[in-house]
Design a protein that fits this description.
alpha/beta, Rossmann fold, 221 residues, single chain, 2 domains
Length: 221
C-alpha cells in the first residue's frame, strides 16, 4: 500500500518514512512540492501526507492542482500552521485531516490507519464484500471465502488491493505494472501469471478480463 510523503525537514522526512515502512507501507518521500506533484501525476497512492511550508510548490498550491486534475486521493496535512485561517484553507481545499507538529509517530499511525479505513472500506469491519461469498480486508490484506482464509503472497495482496481500489472499472495491464509493480521491468506475461494464480485460489470470475481493456474486480452494489 503506497503513500506519498511531502516533507522538507530532513529529520521528519527520514523518521516518518522509516516508521511507515516498518508498518508495511511503501513510501515515496519528497522534499519539494513540484517533485511531489510529478509523482502524483505518474503514480497511484492510497494517501498523501503533505507539509504546507515546502519549497517550489507549497502544500496548499499542490492541493489546488490536484483538485483541477480531479484527483481524489485522501490528504493528511502535517504542519505547524494550525491557526484557524490555515486550517480553514486546508479543509476548504479538501484535505481530510490535520496533524499538528510536533507529534508522536504513534498518533501519525492512528490517523493514517483511520483515513485509509474510512476512504477505502465499505463497513465498520474494514471489509469489502465481493461476489460468490468472498470478502477482502483492505488493511490486513486477508481474503476469505465463506469465512475460510485464502493464503496469498504479498504481491497478490497488492494486486487485489489495487483492483479493489478501482473496483468495477477495467485496469490496463500497463497500469498494473506502473502501480502494483512500481514501473519495474516485469513482463506482461508475468503479471498475467499472478492473475492466473489468484484465479486458481479463488475462481475464474474473481478477476474479470476483457481484451483491450484489462482486468477488474467487481463489487456488488
Amino acid at each position: 500500500m503506497k503513500i506519498l510523503l511531502l516533507e522538507d525537514d530532513y529529520n521528519y522526512n527520514e523518521s516518518i518514512t522509516e516508521y511507515l515502512e516498518d508498518l508495511g507501507f511503501q513510501v515515496d518521500s519528497f522534499y519539494d512540492g513540484e517533485e511531489a506533484l510529478d509523482a502524483i501525476v505518474e503514480n497511484s497512492y492510497y494517501l498523501l501526507i503533505l507539509d504546507i511550508k515546502v519549497p517550489k510548490l507549497n502544500g496548499h498550491e499542490l492541493i489546488k492542482y490536484l483538485n483541477e486534475m480531479g484527483n481524489e486521493t485522501p490528504i493528511l496535512i502535517m504542519t505547524s500552521l494550525v491557526d484557524i485561517d490555515n486550517m480553514t484553507i486546508g479543509y476548504e481545499l479538501g484535505c481530510d485531516d490535520y496533524l499538528k507538529k510536533p507529534f508522536e509517530l504513534k498518533e501519525l499511525e492512528l490517523r493514517v490507519t483511520q483515513l485509509i479505513k474510512s476512504k477505502y472500506n465499505t463497513d465498520k469491519n474494514s471489509t469489502y464484500k465481493l461476489k460468490d461469498g468472498y470478502t477482502f480486508e483492505f488493511i490486513s490484506g486477508v481474503l476469505k471465502k465463506d469465512d475460510i482464509e485464502i493464503e496469498l503472497t504479498s504481491k497478490e495482496i497488492d494486486l487485489i488491493r489495487f483492483l479493489i481500489k478501482n473496483a468495477n472499472y477495467y485496469c490496463e495491464i500497463e497500469n498494473l505494472r506502473e502501480n502494483v509493480w512500481e514501473g519495474k521491468d516485469i513482463h506482461y506475461a508475468d503479471i498475467r501469471m499472478y492473475i492466473s494464480k489468484i484465479r486458481v485460489k479463488t475462481n475464474k470470475e474473481f478477476i474479470l478480463s476483457s481484451r483491450g481493456l484489462g482486468y477488474k474486480i467487481e463489487i456488488p452494489s
